[in-house]
Amino acid sequence: MRTRREFLGVATAGLPAGLDFALEDYHVHLNTMTLEQVVARSRETGVKYGLLEHLGTKENEYPIVLSNDKEALDWIAKLKDHGVYIGAQAEWIDWVPCFSKEVLSRLDYILTDSWTVRDASGKRIKAFSAGYNPGDDPEAFMKWYVDWIVEILETTPLDIWSHPMWVTRKFTSQLERMWTEERMRRVVMTCKNTNTAVEIDSSVRLPTVPFLKMAKEEGVKFSFGASSQGARVNPIDWSINTARELGLTKKDMFQPAPQGRKPVQTRKLRA
Ligand SMILES: [Zn+2]
Predict the structure, then answer these.
(1) What is the CA(12)–ligand 1 centre distance, in A?
(2) More confident residue, 77 or 58
(3) How far is the CA of 206 from the centre of ligand 1 (A)?
(4) CA of 205 to the centre of ligand 1 (A)
(5) What is the rounded distance in angstroms from the CA atom of residue 241 to the CA atom of residue 252?
(6) Which CATH code for domain 23-255?
(7) pLDDT for 82-112, tens place per residue?
(8) 17 C-alpha vs ligand 1 centroid, how far in Å?
(9) pLDDT confidence of 238, banded at 50, 70, 90?
(10) Domain range summary for the chain, segments of one domain joined by +
(11) Residue 168 CA to ligand 1 centre (angstroms)
């Protein structure tokens, strides 16, 4: 049986065929997986993984939510020196004051998505949960949703925007129509101005090609992610193929900022 490394066509110097950069997947949750399993998988695939724990106030409902310096430091200590990137997936927009800048800057990167939203009464709710009602009007939904994405990007110091362009399941079939050129441009320019990388997400196969091309032209950086949620590490084939099709090269790819230059240390946030 061929190993995954051979299947991906890893060429000389350990680079995958057609790409001039090493493979990295910045979206792996451990959940029921162990760190050792991920490290073993990395040896098999040649992909360097970035591991995430959810981070934010305890109001966010996840089995584990890092909510203070001590919890963040424990997470960092657990992953240190294992050849993985140490990341966190921030939730909502009120997490920054839960931590000291010094501790946040010890994370390699912070990623977020825009799946936790405000419901009609302003309360936080997971837009993928059964209890969420996005209304019937996709236009009305998009109007506040794009504002919300921009608010997240402008008010929190992020490295990566994950699950880009995703919309609530009810409107998935209309996604491309709902993401007008103007809306895509607004979000792309916000990513550019905030220096936030965009995930090329193998789990939901987003963003779309027009968005990716626009972001590439503006010099926005990209990361790969498969949103592995435990049980196993998912493949990033879609991300790889998309990068090949777009002609992405090393200069287009996200790398964690060095100490002293991390968004949590340098970003001027919108109040
Ligand atoms: Zn995630």
Answers:
(1) 32
(2) 77
(3) 14
(4) 14
(5) 15
(6) 3.20.20.140
(7) 999 999 999 999 999 999 999 999 999 999 9
(8) 28
(9) very high
(10) 23-255
(11) 16
